[in-house]
Amino acid sequence: xxxxxxxxxxxxxxxxxxxxxxxxxxxxxxxxxxxxxxxxxxxxxxxxxxxxxxxxxxxxxxxxxxxxxxxxxxxxxxxxxxxxxxxxxxxxxxxxxxxxxxxxxxxxxxxxxxxxxxxxxxxxxxxxxxxxxxxxxxxxxxxxxxxxxxxxxxxxxxxxxxxxxxxxxxxxxxxxxxxxxxxxxxxxxxxx
Length: 192
Description:
This protein is α/β, with parallel strands linked by helices and 192 residues long. It has helices at residues 18-31, 49-53, 73-78, 88-93, 100-114, 125-130, 136-145, 161-166, and strands at 8-12, 36-41, 61-66, 119-123, 151-155, 169-172.
C-alpha cells in the first residue's frame, strides 16, 4: 500500500477523540525515546490531563498551549470547580487581536526548522484555519518543508480539503454514543 511511512496524519470529524488520538501517538513516541512536541492552537485552559503528563514524559515530550487562559483554571485543576461554560475562552481565542494562532504557527515553524522532533502535533489547527487566524498556505508550506523523517499530526473539525488530500492517513472521529450528548458533563480524567 504505502511505499513510505505515513508522515502526515489527520484526525478530524465532529466526534470526540481527535486530540486524545494525537496525544496517544505523542506519548507512544516519547515512550520510545523519540522527541514529541504538541502545539495546541487556541487552547489555554491550563488544567487538562495532558499538561500534567508532560512532566512524567520529560525530556521526550513537550506541550505548549497558545490561547486564552481560563480564569477558573487553578480551581478546576484542584478539582474544586468545573467549567461554567462562560465562553470567554472561545471568544478570546478567536479574537485576531490576541495573536494566539500566529504565535503558535511561528512556534511550530521553529520546531520544523530545528528538525529535532520526531512527531509534531498541531492540535486544533483547523479551528485557526476556519476562523482565518492563520493562512492555509502557511500550513501547507510547513508540511512541504518538514524533514522527511518527521511525522506531523493535525487535529480539528472541518480540516481543509487541501490538507486532507496531502495527508497519508486521515481518521474521521464520529461519536456513535457519548455521555456528553446525554447531559453528562466533561469528566476529569476522561474528557480532560
